[in-house]
Amino acid sequence: MVAEDYEAVLKGKYPGKDHAKRVVDLIRKDVPDANGILYLESQVTRMMEDSDEPEPFRQRRYFYYLTGCNLPDCAFVYDIQSAKSTLFIPPINPDDVIWSGLPVSIDEALAQYDVDEVKLTTELNATLAHLGSENPKSSAFAIANQVSDHVSFIGLDNKNFNVLKTAIETSRVVKDEFEIAMLRKANYISGIGHRAAFARAKTAKNEQEFEAAFKERCYSYGIKKMSYDPIAAAGRAAATLHYVPNNAPLEGKLNLLLDAGGEWNNYAADITRTFPLSGKFSKESRHIYETVLKMQKECISVLKEGVVWDDVHLLAHKIAIDGLLEAGVLKGDKDEILKARTSAAFLPHGLGHYLGMDTHDTGGNPNFGDKDKLFRYLRVRGTLPSGSVVTVEPGIYFCKFIIDPYLEDPVHSKFIDKDVLDKYWDVGGVRIEDNILITKTGSENLTDVPREADEMEALVSAMTKMNPYFPPTPDAEKWSDPNYYTRPAPVAPPTPSPPPEYSAYRPEFGAGLAPPPPPRPLRPVRSATNLTGAHAPQQSGFLDPRGNYQVDFVVDEIPSPTSLSPAPLSPAPSNEIRRVKSSSALSARLDAQEDKPKDSSKWKAALGEAQYFAGGLISHPAESNKHFSIIRHSHALIWYRGPATSVPITILSDEPLPPTRTVWLQQKGYSGNMGMTLKAMMRTTGTWIDVTPATKTGVEHIAEAEERGIQRDFKRFVKKASGRMKKHLPRETHIIRIPAAATDGYFRLVLCSNADGKKVLCGSPVFRIASTSTDVSTVRGSSLSTMPLEMGIKVASTIGSQVAKKYTGVAGAVVEQGAKRLTPANATIKKVATKAYHGSGIGNAVSESWKNGKAGRYDPLISGEAMEPLTILGSDEGPEAPFPFKFAGKVVRGTGIATRELGIPTANLSEVGDEVKMRMGGVFAAWARVLPPKESEDFDDDWHEAIVTIAPLRNAPPGVVLRNKVTVHILHDFSDTLFFDLRMKIMLMGHLHPSSPNLSNEAFLEEHTRDVMTTTASLGRENWGPEVSVSAVRAVKSEKGFKERLGDATGMVQSQMDRIPKHWVGVRSEAGVLRDHVYGNGGLWVER
């Protein structure tokens, strides 16, 4: 049955009534006089915990099998005697209509589903009572735990909650024509998804790109859900049967195993392919691949009605043994190897399973308690009936966790050659899986995805030859056609709209296998220019850590000033800042959230006006020379907003960039553009700032809207390019962090060939860095043509300063109110106290303490050197300065990745000051104590050993600035106790080593194990205990003199002031400059 055939079948109704009759026949085999009703409920709507959003909906398969209905909160009744089916749907809820529109009506449901009658669920109990009264001795057949409490079977004498479930599961094994058509369509679309994944082999940098490519293609063809979470396992990870992370880098990996299938109206596809990432199998990989392919082909060839699945599974093992003997991995007599079950080390799972509405469909009767390890995980036992669908998925895997016990067992180790085995670990695992329909005389393969080794290499290699910069050639279009490899070529389902034009610059689009869906329209943003009806620039999508846009793309021509309304700029009145009740509340709010000022609309309006002029006056988007070009993807006015301020550029060239390339920030002086060029030619780089981005990332970490803007800039460049510029190809996109050392003024970025900046390759377009901290020197580098820009910046600066003053005034008011409690009320006493303050020298001491406290308060307190493995911290006398180091924080929800993937439960702390996070980076041995909630009993609030990490999160996405976070792993089992929103005290006792964010999971676990042993051994000594350390801290504090106490007090005030995020209104502060240098170069770069 080809594509048009199954589409014709699927135009009809899902045969729910036929299924109901088959189920009744099966029930009567167990209950011969069965009479009464079948009762089923659909899945109910459930809300997510702590949310007003519903959980993802998945229909109950038993309900769907008899109705074909995918609606929630429904019920179904089948009268066995009259063979009448009734579907009950929820009544209209007016509140739901406001948000979700009208639900399916009774008439629509009757037309759509294969039922005799449709009623509302409010009539359910009355209908059941009526049916019971007509047949007094009848039974209600239902499924245990799937009957709601409000349902009453009045008049139905017997209730049987056992046989219905078994009867439906048995009936589901043999598929009818409609079900097979659903499986065909799921396979067809899933096959297109697999081809899309093949196309990513060369350009992909991470496993997750294959999952994304598969899902995108399936969704664009109408699939709503995956049959299961796709498995995209590269290299050795492919030896894990149900690999979960899908997020490992591909560098150095040989093959990728993709196990993925989409679901069409609840019917699943389950397809696996393994292919070489380079386009060419290694010698070892190819041998294993061809062995697995032979296993699959020969197993499929024997399939037909009545075949015993155990025998087919045994055949797969025999062929696997032959292949491993030929490779030299196994040695000895093949019959003895089979008898010893040594092959289970390399093929530990069953050959396949039934497929239908569930991936592992019902009716297989597995025996997971089988003492024979060869058959223990076989999900189908017994003979195969005609009309059933099974997966045939043989595999050979090289998993150390599974194989190592075999190597240690003399019964098995004598059959395994360890030296040869060592050559195969990097193969990981190979699995090939197709979906097979069993017929009376043979079988039919429903899966149509290439599987021959030469075919796979040719397919992947063809994708590697695509030029990611220019559109593919006409000859390459055949690779984008999903019908190219089909046998026979199925007809694709109709698409809802003609294919849109798409960019060939994105490498992953270079070999698109089907027309991508139309891009979402870009939503314009508000700015001062469009408040008066002018054009609004499109936001770039470069988000800072608080979700705000840092820069803007100029996506259209800037309108002339005459197009603006002549009315003066009149921004909407701002909202008053809500005063907090206490300084601690203010501190918590600013430290935890660091929200923008609420009344910054005037500031935004003025900034938008200044950016409007900037875009019109110095908006040249690209600079080029003979060999290089640099495109600036932002406005020409960059408003300084703290350490995450950035400028995005792309470097193009006619040859690959030198690996030692660097990027420098050069300020424009009174000599203008010519002066900047002459200084570069003369290699005068004394005042340049090295801003070479520190972190390499992938295009997958660039937001979709942001990448579309970059591609749009590429198109414009190509359109305008002439001469040698036509040979300039995009090499790298940089998101350059602008350091605080770059004061206000005009700048450009300079690309150099090496680290000393001596050889200049190209300069970028000029841009203006501005803040509200203006003075006369900041206009340096401007010209007559840019004076309107300076006027706009002046307006923005004035308004921004007022906003900042008002915002910081809140903190000032809180501090002042608190100070009143300590200030004498009597005027005479005040006068005497003031004179004493200055006359005694206390005033000078305070001033000196304030000055000294500024310098170095964010400098690291530790050297950052790593310890030797498994050593003991310090001496037995106790920790040395700066330890013990105390701080506290609030436990907040994290990602859960450490617990889920590594088995290491961690607590994430917020409200920890920058003086801790920026000065104490690394991994520490520590004591931790959770403060109990009020009115709690039996709460464990003792001090416990802990490992504290102060570093960017391991799984954090790349950012322009990576800020340190505090995570705590307490070495104590609290059972299922949750600490969210509780306070935790930390006492750092010693530095273990710097954080290593790029370690693999295996290496990280090994490192963590060493840390646990070191921490436990170190803190077990008498002078390292928590009580001794707390006493030591108190003793040090009590012994401090006046000068030290004064330093602590001023430091505390400075810390509170530092938490005020004045940079959000463009104000540069001393604290911001001090913090900025700690972040280093920062920035990101993407290889094109």
UniProtKB/TrEMBL annotation:
Basic and acidic residues compositional bias, start-end: 591-601
GO BP annotations listed: proteolysis; riboflavin biosynthetic process
Family note: Belongs to the flavokinase family. Belongs to the peptidase M24B family.
Pfam family, one: Flavokinase
Task of the protein: Catalyzes the phosphorylation of riboflavin (vitamin B2) to form flavin mononucleotide (FMN) coenzyme.
Gene3D superfamilies: Creatinase/methionine aminopeptidase superfamily, Creatinase/prolidase N-terminal domain, Riboflavin kinase-like
Protein name: Aminoacylproline aminopeptidase
Catalytic activities: Release of any N-terminal amino acid, including proline, that is linked to proline, even from a dipeptide or tripeptide
Keywords: Aminopeptidase, ATP-binding, Flavoprotein, FMN, Hydrolase, Manganese, Metal-binding, Metalloprotease, Nucleotide-binding, Protease, Transferase
GO MF term set: ATP binding; manganese ion binding; metalloaminopeptidase activity; riboflavin kinase activity
Keyword flag Membrane: no
Cofactors named for this entry: Mn(2+)
EC number annotated for this UniProt entry: 2.7.1.26, 3.4.11.9
InterPro entries per the UniProt record, alphabetical: Aminopep_P_N, Creatin/AminoP/Spt16_N, Creatinase/aminopeptidase-like, Pept_M24, Riboflavin_kinase_bac/euk, Riboflavin_kinase_dom_sf, X-Pro_dipept-like
UniProt feature, compositional bias: Pro residues: 490-501
Segments of this protein annotated with the region Disordered: 480-527, 561-601
